Amino acid sequence: MLRTKEQITEELIAAGREIAPDDPAQREANRRVASIDGVSVYFTKADEIARDKEEAAVAAKQADYVANHKWKDDRRDAYGDVGDQLDMMFHDLADGSTTWKDHIATVKADNPKPG
Predict the structure, then answer these.
(1) Which of the listed residues 29, 45, 62 is the one where a domain comes to its end?
(2) What is the pLDDT of residues 67-93, one digit of tens each?
(3) I need a surface site. Which of 1, 34, 59, 104 has the fewest CB within 10 A?
């Protein structure tokens, strides 16, 4: 049997949860809100601690990516299409230029490996 929103709200209140207004403009400032079965509730202290840990872990992963791996994606984007690179190589061989070599050197210089 499906429970109504009112039944869920009553169960959450009985469990000690503080119900938050559905309208975000009416909520207390600087308090995080979760939705449990469609009912908005304020975070408990335990919820706050758990979310802070989750956010710190995400921030640490993001910082690690930026410090140690982002350069690979930046280079891949800057190198351009393989077909365009092959065309550069063809023209370099045909007319003795160094367009492709210069392009690759610039990409590497602009996106250095860390460490």
Answers:
(1) 62
(2) 999 999 999 999 999 999 999 999 999
(3) 1
